[in-house]
């Protein structure tokens, strides 16, 4: 199954290789076992309670493994890895009050609000101002149209070619679970690939039709197929996509 | 704690009016003690509070929370004990020896009373030169014993305090010899063990002073506390990072035999310390690893893992096994041949560890399995069809993070053929399909969501296997069902470029425009 896709990441994906892993004796990998050794050896002398022991282990484990949130611009210190999911849900799921799309930072959210819900923004765009900011904090470049910014993200910042800021929706966990459930319920009905093909074709037809409209280049499409969080049917103007081979 | 409050009631009326201040200081003390206590717990040094002969004349105090007043008192007593020792050492007349022993004993008691001995006070008062004098050749055993004991506890604390023992080292090493009485040799070994536990610098000093051979010889007898203390001291001495000491140790006449003997037959306490020696031998010295593997050390290790329930013992035995597998490819290819009894034995005890309640055992057993699973196709088949897999699948969804990461390595290694040159390794479809069908994918996608770079990488790599290798193009659908797209999309605003590229690459390749959604 030769996949001829022209994304730049193909050749450099680090595939899983099955290798033997060796650790130095003072590697952090062994630290919990070393700690256990000393605790057990001194337990009687120091009269440690079970609680104290657990607290101690936790403290030392956490000290050794201080993690910082890896989302760009955040840097929050996480007390443990387990905390990351909660932190992400609390800090990186900024949701739009108008359309409930979700973004990982408040900056992105505010960009979205300007671009999607602000007529003043659209007015400036129509008059030719470069209003579409690059999404990467610190870059600073601005573009006159959505497509231009999109291309910049792909070219300069290696965003996936299928990335679509406007349609980027990151549903909350609850929504995700609900979607999963619905998907599983409907799974049986949708096994027939022919049905999907028909859907695709219809969508494709729409997409190519819209892309031919002269004004469609500058404004993000208001077409969102299916649910807001339907990942696969994002609209990206054909004009900026190289032809892709269907699987 | 009750003692403290009654004590303060008995004090001057003046004290009660500044009771708040004292209470504050006590609380502050508790915090410092808390930190000190933590540090003392983690150190590779051990305080000697009860002599080998079970010296019952000093009640061992369990209350670490000394008040400031009590602390000052202890310091003062220590200073005067050192003064006393000074005059005893200078004294030449009748009964000099007894005088010296009494003075040493008093100092020793003060240094053994609590978990935080008044070392600073002792050093300030000039204890070391006096103790060195007391170690001189020809001194009576009792004197040597008490002096070595004092030095042991001085060396059990902070780095600067341990380093203060430098002048005493040559004599301590000398008294390890076979002419010394066993208790004296043991106490000197203990002191040296603490010194070696301090760090690389002191270890190198000890090695250059010839501490290794006599300590090694102390490990040769069949039993006794001396053997155990010597083994412990050796484990501190050879822990590197320079592998020279480890290599030197295995070459000492009789050591290999003693190691095997103790692992096979000795009581659990002694076997534990010897196992730690093996841990360092196998982690640091390729030469030692080779020698150990050839001498069939795996058998007694497996035996201990199968029969013991002592966590103290299981940890170093399991780790030794792990180091021997990881350190020498011959272990897996020539000893652990699939079909041989030893191989079944190893898998069996690793499974036992996976079932254990102890975090360390589950994690390190998974690590060992992952390395065996990195062997030949036959090794992968062996593990795949063993009892390990259902356990691993369960651990992947329920265990703490560090265990899940190791489990991920095992499962992934089972799905990928041995690396053969450049390019993508081939998939072992049978294993991949089965494991995915048994629900492992969600565990890997959880790892993608982790803040840990290594784990996220593993998650993405395994996801790639699924996307590539599941038949009928089922991969993408399965990944989506487990919210894999979601997890990968998080990386668009992630600061790690490699992970971003990996995730974006997969999303582009498998979930591009053409990807339909089953709604």
Automatic annotation (TrEMBL), chain A:
Q: Where is the composition biased (Polar residues)?
A: 213-224
Q: Which portions of the sequence form the region Disordered?
A: 173-200, 213-247
Q: Which residues form the C2H2-type domain?
A: 96-117, 134-157
Q: Compositional bias (Basic residues) at which positions?
A: 173-186
Top-level taxon: Eukaryota
Compositional bias of kind Basic and acidic residues: 187-198
* SMART domains for the chain: ZnF_C2H2 (SM00355)
- Return the protein name: C2H2-type domain-containing protein
From what organism does this protein derive?
A: Hibiscus trionum (Flower of an hour)
TrEMBL record, chain B:
A molecular function annotated in GO for this UniProt entry is:
nuclear import signal receptor activity
**One matching Pfam family:** Arm
Q: Which cellular component, as a GO term, is one annotated location? A: cytoplasm
Query: In its keyword annotation, does this UniProt entry include Repeat?
Result: yes
Q: Where is the composition biased (Basic and acidic residues)?
A: 1-14
Q: Which UniProt keywords apply?
A: Protein transport, Repeat, Transport
Q: List the GO biological process terms.
A: protein import into nucleus
Does the record bear Protein transport in its keywords? Answer: yes
Q: Where is this region: Disordered?
A: 1-33
> Which InterPro entries does the entry link to?
ARM-like, ARM-type_fold, Armadillo, Importin_alpha
Give the UniProt family note. Belongs to the importin alpha family.
What is this protein called in UniProt? Importin subunit alpha
Its source organism is Hibiscus trionum
């Amino acid at each position: 199954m030769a996949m001829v896709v022209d994304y730049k990441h193909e050749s450099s994906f680090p595939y899983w290789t099955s290798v033997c892993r060796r650790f130095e004796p003072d590697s952090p990998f062994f630290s919990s076992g070393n700690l256990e050794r000393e605790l057990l050896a001194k337990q009687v002398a120091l009269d440690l309670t079970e609680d104290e022991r657990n607290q101690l282990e936790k403290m030392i484990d956490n000290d050794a493994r201080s993690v910082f949130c890896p989302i760009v611009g955040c840097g929050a210190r996480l007390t443990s890895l387990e905390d990351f999911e909660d932190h992400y849900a609390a800090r990186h799921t900024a949701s739009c009050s108008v359309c409930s799309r979700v973004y990982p930072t408040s900056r992105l959210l505010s960009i979205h609000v300007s671009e999607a819900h602000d007529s003043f923004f659209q007015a400036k765009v129509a008059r030719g101002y470069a209003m579409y900011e690059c999404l990467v904090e610190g870059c600073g470049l601005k573009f006159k149209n959505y497509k231009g910014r999109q291309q910049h993200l792909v070219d300069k910042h290696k965003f996936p070619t299928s990335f679509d800021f406007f349609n980027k929706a990151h549903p909350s966990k609850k929504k995700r679970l609900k979607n999963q459930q619905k998907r599983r319920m409907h799974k049986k009905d949708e096994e027939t690939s022919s049905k999907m093909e028909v859907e695709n074709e219809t969508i494709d037809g729409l997409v190519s039709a819209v892309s031919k409209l002269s004004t469609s280049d500058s404004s993000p499409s208001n077409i969102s197929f299916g649910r807001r969080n339907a990942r696969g049917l994002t609209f990206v103007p054909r004009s900026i996509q190289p032809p892709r081979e269907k699987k | 704690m009750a003692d403290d409050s009654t004590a303060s009631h008995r004090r001057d009326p003046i004290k009660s009016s500044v009771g708040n201040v004292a209470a504050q200081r006590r609380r502050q003390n508790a915090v410092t003690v808390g930190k000190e206590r933590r540090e003392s717990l983690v150190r590779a040094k051990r305080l000697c509070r009860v002599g080998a002969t079970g010296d019952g004349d000093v009640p061992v105090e369990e209350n670490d929370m000394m008040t400031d007043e009590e602390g000052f008192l202890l310091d003062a007593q220590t200073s005067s004990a050192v003064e006393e020792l000074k005059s005893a050492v200078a004294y030449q007349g009748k009964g000099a020896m007894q005088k010296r022993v009494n003075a040493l004993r008093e100092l020793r008691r003060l240094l053994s009373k609590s978990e935080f001995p008044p070392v600073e006070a002792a050093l300030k008062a000039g204890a070391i030169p006096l103790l060195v004098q007391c170690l001189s050749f020809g001194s009576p055993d009792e004197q040597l014993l008490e002096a070595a004991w004092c030095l042991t506890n001085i060396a059990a604390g902070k780095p600067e305090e341990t380093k203060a023992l430098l002048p005493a080292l040559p004599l301590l090493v000398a008294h390890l010899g076979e002419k010394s009485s066993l208790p004296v040799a043991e106490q000197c070994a203990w002191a040296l063990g603490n010194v070696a536990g301090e760090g690389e610098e002191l270890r190198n000093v000890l090695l250059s002073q010839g501490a290794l051979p006599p300590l090694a010889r102390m490990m040769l007898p069949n039993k006794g506390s001396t053997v155990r203390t010597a083994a412990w001291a050796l484990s501190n001495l050879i822990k590197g990072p320079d592998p020279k000491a480890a290599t030197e140790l295995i070459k000492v006449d009789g050591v290999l035999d003693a190691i095997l003997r103790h692992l096979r037959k000795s009581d659990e306490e002694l076997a534990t310390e010897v196992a730690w020696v093996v841990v360092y031998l196998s982690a640091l010295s390729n030469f030692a690893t080779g020698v150990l593997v050839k001498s069939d050390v795996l058998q007694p290790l497996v035996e201990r893992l199968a029969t013991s329930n002592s966590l103290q013992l299981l940890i170093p035995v399991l780790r030794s096994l792990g180091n021997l597998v990881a350190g020498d490819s011959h272990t897996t290819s020539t000893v652990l041949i699939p079909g041989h009894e030893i191989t079944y034995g190893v898998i069996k005890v690793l499974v036992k560890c996976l079932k254990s309640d102890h975090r360390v055992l589950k994690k390190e057993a998974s690590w060992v399995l992952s390395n065996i699973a990195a062997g030949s196709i036959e090794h992968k088949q062996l593990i795949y069809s063993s009892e390990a897999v259902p356990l691993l699948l369960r651990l992947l969804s329920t265990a703490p993070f560090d265990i899940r990461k190791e489990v991920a390595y095992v499962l992934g290694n089972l799905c990928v053929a041995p690396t053969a040159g450049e390019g993508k390794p081939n998939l072992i479809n049978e294993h991949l399909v089965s494991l995915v069908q048994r629900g492992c994918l969600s565990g890997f996608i959880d790892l993608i969501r982790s803040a840990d770079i290594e784990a996220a990488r593993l998650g993405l790599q395994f996801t790639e296997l699924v996307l590539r290798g599941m038949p009928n193009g089922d991969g993408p659908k399965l990944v989506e069902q487990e919210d894999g797209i979601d997890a990968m999309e998080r990386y668009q605003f992630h600061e790690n470029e490699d992970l971003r590229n990996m995730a974006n690459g997969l999303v582009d390749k498998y979930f591009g425009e053409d990807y339909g959604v089953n709604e």
